[in-house]
Request: fold
Amino acid sequence: MKTKFLLFVVIYIYCIILLGCKNDDENTQEKVSVAVVLSVVEKDGGFNEFTLKGARQAAENFDLDFTYLVSFPNQFEFDIKKLADDGYDLIIGLGFLMTDALSNAASAYPDTHFAIMDVVYENYDELPNVTSLAFAEDQVGYLAGALAGCVTETHVIGTVAGMEIPPVIRFVTGFQKGALSVNPSVVVLNEYIPSFNDPMTGRQVGEAHIAQGADVIFAVAGETGNGALEAAHQAGIKAIGVDVDQYYTFPQIARSLITSAMKKVDMVAYDAVRDFVAGKRGIVIRGAASTLESGIRLATVANGGVGLAPYHDWENKISEQCKQKVINARQRIAIDPVKK
Reply:
């Protein structure tokens, strides 16, 4: 009887030791928390929605504490600092309007890492805890321009642009250079509109371009640009979307879209969160240590961070000659990226 009792005690103690060791192993994986601050709207079919999609997917895959909120310009800094106060390890913001709010928060919370989509700072020495998730808009704009310059029949094409800020300017200038590279006689119209949420004005500018003979419209202006895409669709001319594959996000005008100049925001957001977690947990990715370093992380044609969407309904309507010119343009960019 005593032997059985002693055996039971030994087995019981052994199980406790095993369970304790298991818990110790589980606790060695550091818990990481991530937050995303969206600008004004969540379901925009563009930057906000796809940033959230990529970050959330990474959080699910790596078992992270995750939250997000929709903020507004007069609340940006307060909301970002509140998340830092709450102890989030990585806070992701996005867009030009959040530039100062995020840098101010980063200065106030040096132990928190911040990332911002589509914004580049000039003083990373003073912001050692900030990563800019930037895009080579000029490169993908160049590809869109090469396609537009080839398919135009009137030799007039147009861009309807949003606020005159660096990312938008890069899209426009890249588009102009790409068009002229395949069609030196093409006329490229452009007008900047000081808002990303004014589809009525976007439509009016698109109609003005069409009245001047434009038969391809490239909309680079968020919701404002969607108004221009509607004008192109109604006029029965070709259109090019922006940021995401608008064939899926703006199906009302899909049959007019020959492509979209995509910034693969969801992929960039996912990779940023993944690499941040890898750095915190010492995870090896693709055979190498990885982390989210401060400074500029640039998405390019070469690394797949920007590129044209499929031609979809236009796959059999666009000539092989024009498709080849886009391929040639892509190869040129890989060798000698377009200068900003």
